[in-house]
Amino acid sequence: MTASRSPSRSRWIEAWDPEDEVFWEEKGAGIANRNLFFSVLSEHIGFSVWTLWSVLVLFMGPEYGLSPADKFLLTSMVTLVGAVVRVPYTFAVAVFGGRNWTIISAGLLLVPTVAAFTVMEPGTSFSTFLWVGLLAGIGGGNFASSMTNINAFFPMRRKGWALGLNAGGGNVGVATIQLVALAVIGASGGPRVLLGIYIPLIVVAAVLAALFMDNLATVKNDTGAAVDAAKDAHTWIMSFLYIGTFGSFIGYSFAFGQVLTNQFGRTPLQATYLTFIGPLLGSLIRPVGGRLADRYGGARITLWNYVAMAAATMVLVVASMQKSLSLFVAAFVVLFSLTGIGNGSTYKMIPGIFQTKALAEGLEGEAAVAYGRRLSGASMGLIGAMGALGGVGINLAFRQSFLSYGSGTGAFVAFLVFYGVTFAVTWAVYLRRPAGQAVSTVAAETKPQLSYAEV
Q1: 402 lies in some domain
Q2: C-alpha–C-alpha distance, residues 369 and 361, integer Å
Q3: pLDDT at 7
């Protein structure tokens, strides 16, 4: 089998079967890896724009007239928009094509960046900052469309690594913009210098996507898949688990710097020296989480990762109460790393769960692969959107904790309880009982049963 392009549809690949090992070795791997590389680049810029305001609020001193609660509300709303737009971005890939939508979504990043460049000065009203900040939320949508697109390029046996690498490379955008901000602040530059750096980078990402990416004609617009995915309980269970991993990552990415400045009295420059470390490690380790899930099973890795996240959060509670900056930063960096591992393992679980259901229901070969690919691709947008809503909850929890107690301790206690619940759900649904209990009795009598612990 060959990857073929229609002469009338430039950059469209009509035939694509990554599960065919001969095809994969001869042509598929090279094409998939090339698309993965430029997908990562575009998603990386998208994450940078989405988390732009986590950095901009550090530039906004007393002359801007914003309270800590105002800043947490601002970053919460940016996170909210990023979560909501993930749903339409997921299905945009099937409507426009992965390459075409990458070009469009990259180009759209110019809107919030130019708008922020225009209004970023003392005297601008909070409502104006809020509306402009909301525009930055579209950067969060790039993740959903990118993951849906890359999911279609890679075979099941390589999805954990590929999806982890794609997401991790995008997540690094959080740390990158914080590092760039550190350099700008260190050079006595203002927020407009930071924005001016990213405007041309957005253009570069869009141009490179146009030159080097492809559309897969096999990814058709299928509204039925969205409906079926929304009806499946596993979509919502995985959404809940992803709130615990990615919701934590993006929520902490927005809030870490503000916690350091408000609770520990760090200056913006001092805070920025520390804030990039956690997101950087959490991003770089995400492919490792995917690889571990490929080898040991995503459910097992996710379960024990939640145990470790709860332990790190307990240390954060102690550090927060004792006002120990060194212990606080160390525990936060560890927690960031654990969110990265969990991000990789949970996203590996998604295609595995639907593939397991297909096999348990009696489907075989290409029919089972098509079933798993169809529902996993459709569910990723919903799961990604719900996961990002966790970031909203984290920022709102910090806002309320600072309003009520003057510190983030109350928020950390709430997070600790939540991680306990995610541990229980992971064990109860994916490790306590076999997949056969989740499918029909007929399938159970006619097919060998697979355990969700293997996904």
Answers
A1: yes
A2: 13
A3: 41
Give the number of other CB atoms < 10 A from CB of residue 318.
15
The number of distinct structural domains making up the chain is: 1
The pLDDT, as a whole number, for residue 223 is 63
Domain that holds residue 40: 12-454
DSSP three-state, residue 332: helix
Q: Are 253 and 54 in contact (CB under 8 A)?
A: yes
Residue 300 sits in a domain of what CATH number? 1.20.1250.20
The CB density around residue 382, as the number of other CB atoms within 10 Å, is 22
Number of helical (H) and strand (E) elements in the chain, helices listed first: 22, 2
- Asked whether residue 242 is domain-assigned, the answer is yes
Q: How far is residue 334's CA from residue 78's CA, in Å, rounded to a whole number?
A: 25
Domain membership flag for residue 1: no
Which residues does 213 contact at the CB level (< 8 Å), separation at least 6?
Answer: 11, 34, 35, 38, 39, 98, 99, 102
Question: Cβ atoms within 10 A of the Cβ of 296, count?
Answer: 14
Per the listing, tokens 């609660």 go with 69
Q: What is the pLDDT of residues 191-215, one digit of tens each?
A: 889 899 999 999 999 999 999 999 9
pLDDT of residue 351: 85
Measured CA angle at 258 (ends 175, 192), to 5 deg: 60
- Residue 154 three-state SS: coil
